[in-house]
Amino acid sequence: MSEQQSVVIVGAAGGIGSELVRRLAKSGATLTLAGRTKEPLDELASEVGATSVVCDATDPEAVDALFEEAGEITGAVNLAGSLLLKPAHRTSPEEFSDTINASLLTAFNVVRAAAGSLVTARSGGSIVLMSSAVARTGMRHHDAIAAAKGGVEALARASASSYADKGIRVNAVAPGMTETALTSKLLATDTARKASENLHPMGTIAQPEEVASAIAWLLDPVQRVVTGQVLAVDAGLGSLHRR
């Protein structure tokens, strides 16, 4: 990191989030960790000397309160999300709504609150959202999550344009399969893992620290001219032909 940072991380206690927290803490960043479950947040916050806030990021008032508590910030990250693997005709309206809320609504609420804070401070900053390789390449049974993540990418580009003249950068990262608790059932057997690896042109599954590294890079003020981008961290899944 090039200078002292103060970052709000929503979804901080997940696999990618916890790796990002540890990476930023080592650089001396001031961190506010948010999520829906108190115990893992408190444990992680205690480990790195951060502040933890229980927050349902689908609630805009709760997100506003989170950023008010965080005070002056230099960046924000939204890692909230879910994973639903069903074709559209088997997806209930409730499941679709939950999927959209978990990824897209939380992203909008974080952009809204973070941008408001950064505009008020007049100091610029960086907002990083979580997309997925499935937003750019069609994959069966990813109908709802692809719709949600496609919205996240569009949001990142539009918000990057809205706040460019304020020095606020908005980007997204788009992982392929990443080995976290969320995907553990999809990688539970050697056969399942091999099938997932074979979907990726490089034949490998990402580790949380690899995605966290990309997010940290986007947060760094050194990247002051990088905005409106979706950084693929996907072993080629989103842009290359499969092997």
Question: Your description of this structure?
Answer:
There is one protein chain. The protein is an alpha/beta fold. It contains seven helices and seven strands. It has helices spanning 15-26, 38-48, 60-70, 93-121, 143-163, 190-199, 208-219; strands at 6-10, 30-35, 51-54, 75-78, 125-130, 168-175, 230-233. It has a seven-stranded parallel β-sheet, with helices on both faces. Strand 2 (30-35), helix 2 (38-48) and strand 3 form a beta-alpha-beta unit. Helix 1 (15-26) packs across helix 7 (208-219) and helix 4 runs parallel beside helix 5. The longest helix has 29 residues, at 93-121. It is globular, with a radius of gyration of 17 Å. The mean pLDDT is 93.
Task: Summarize, please.
This protein is an alpha/beta fold and 243 residues long.
Give the end-to-end Cα distance, rounded to a whole number of Å.
Answer: 37 Å
- Could you name the ranges where pLDDT drops below 50 across 5 or more consecutive residues? none
Characterize the overall form: globular
The pLDDT mean sits at: 93
Keywords:
243 residues; 7 helices; globular; alpha/beta; seven-stranded parallel beta sheet
